[in-house]
Amino acid sequence: MKKKKTFNILSIDGGGIRGAFVAQMLYKISELTKSNLSKEFDLFIGTSTGSIIAASLAQHISPIKIVKMYKETSSTIFARKHSFTPIFLEKALRSPYDDLKFKIILKKVLSKVRIKDVHKNLIVVSTNLTDGMPYIFKSFDVNGLNCYLYEAIAASCAAPTFFDPIKLENKLLADGGIFANNPSLLAYTSALNDFHIEPQNIRILSIGCGYLNNCYEESKHWGLVNGWKVRILTDFVASLQSESNNVLLEKLLLKDNLLRLNFPNINNIASDDFNAVNDLIDIANNCFNAEKKNILNFFNNM
User: Fold this and answer.
1) pLDDT in tens, 257-281
2) Which of 96, 144, 221, 223 has its CA 20 to 30 A from that of 258?
3) Predicted TM-score (pTM) of this structure
4) How high does pLDDT run on average in the chain?
5) How big is the CA angle at 256 (ends 181 and 254), to the nearest 5 degrees?
6) Contact 98, 81 (CB under 8 A)
7) HEC readout, the chain
């Protein structure tokens, strides 16, 4: 059998409900290429919502089932806790969403498997609030924390002002997007250091969850609420980090070894807007049609 020359990575950004865009893109890609994406990649990596998709593929869950999951569970995941607090004050006082409900859904989707029992190479990105450092779950790291897969995903998705942090052993873990909303650079360094792959043989399909531009205008007042618009600010910082990582990665990889798929989030679809799932699927279909030639070229060289 001919030895495989390239090391293929699927990297998926964080973005909450906008992960529905990624799921639909992957479904369309699998149909176009007539391939089993779970077998096409040597490493899966994801941050926050991206970790859900990466872990699902690593567990051989098909893209169409992942799309269905976003459609059927998003309204439950982003159902606000019962509270007498006015909505505009809620996030100032507590996390509005129930991580227990979220964990139950993740456990149902991913089953009760420990991260070291995942047979595919998988990286899940989170942030350790205890020591102010990244915490990276790796299915292939024998020395790492061997928690349940759904617990690692819940930690990666524990976005500030959305969910409470997750306590695992002596670690208080939160959203990986605080550290690396676009985890593709982390994937690149893992390929070099963990798998000893030559840089010219690393190929990355990197999929984003929407980027922001034109979201600010000149204002007389630049308070957190009126000028900076706190919700847009957090999404803008995550978007900027994602795109900055992609610019750096373009300098490190051969031109044909990186394909970045993303869309302009011109309507500022919020991370928790579960009513936008069908719109995100439509956006993915349009993006797929525009990128079809590039997608085929990337897969033909895998």
Assistant:
1) 999 999 999 888 999 999 999 999 9
2) 144
3) 0.93
4) 91
5) 75
6) yes
7) CCCCCCEEEEEECCCHHHHHHHHHHHHHHHHHHCCCHHHHCCEEEEECHHHHHHHHHHCCCCHHHHHHHHHHHHHHHCCECCCCCCHHHHHHHCCCECHHHHHHHHHHHHCCCEHHHCCCCEEEEEEECCCCEEEEEECCCCCCCCCEHHHHHHHHCCCCCCCCCEEECCEEEEECHHHHCCCHHHHHHHHHHCCCCCHHHEEEEEECCCECCCCCCCCCCCCCCCCCCHHHHHHHHHHHHHHHHHHHHHHHCCHHHEEEECCECCCCCCCCCHHHHHHHHHHHHHHHHHHHHHHHHHHHCC
Mean pLDDT of 190-201: 97
**How confident is residue 43, by pLDDT bands cut at 50, 70 and 90?**
very high
d(CA 129, CA 36): 37
